[in-house]
Design goal:
alpha/beta, 2 domains, 8 helices, 5 strands, globular, SGNH hydrolase-type esterase domain-containing protein, SGNH_hydro_sf, SGNH_hydro
Amino acid sequence: MQLADVALAGAAVGAALVLALAVVLAAQAWYVVRTVPKLPPAEGADHGFVAQADRKPGAPARELRVLMLGDSVVEGTGIVGSHEDAFSGHVARALARRLGCDVRWVCAGKSGSTAATLRTEVLPRAKERAAILGRVDLVAMSVGVNDALRGWTSADFAAELSQLVGEVHAAWPDAHITLSGKPAITHFPALPVPLCLALDWRVGRVFGAARRVVEGATSGRGASYAWVALEDALPRPGETAFLADGFHPGGSVLRAIADAIASRAAAAGVMDG
């Protein structure tokens, strides 16, 4: 057998394996889409206030004003209760604890949002709702997973995210920014192997681009970047890591994300101005 024959045989086997894998991934994706339940968003007011718990009598009040902006995580998809029980409430409480201040917040989120639709559909509403804050000190963003699931390349996503970050800065030039980091897709109960591995690779590329865009765009402007891996979000007694759809984060994961955002906000000195 000639080396050329070996190469051709290897290529044929490789092509067959790739085709077989593609069929498996397509079948698993179809099954997930058909079986994962569609959960409603959190209910109630899209704004709130958290008071500093340990302020001494007579001490002056310090207040941080925060806009939560993003996809289904910010919308509170699957949370049984209000936004106080969802991402926004967790972030506000974590900031109040970590920074030792009152936190006044507004949230604007929409399930399924990509960087592009967040900019064109959600951001205009966020600008209107944020007016009740008077000013915005911190913008806590969640975006990227839907871009990856829709198959956008990291370059396409980087371009869209750059536009989004630019418009956020234009609207609130003195605000700090955090962008929640890549979730560990391989831990999502709703996603079987090998689909979760393929999606984890794709999401990783998109969030790698996100980190470079945000850190580069905000360099020198005082903004910060928050990254939390799902491996660090361990369930606490009485809480669950995922909601009923096996896809969206539950209380313990939201708390871990919130703690990471608060940590990055403290490191960036959001209350030092």
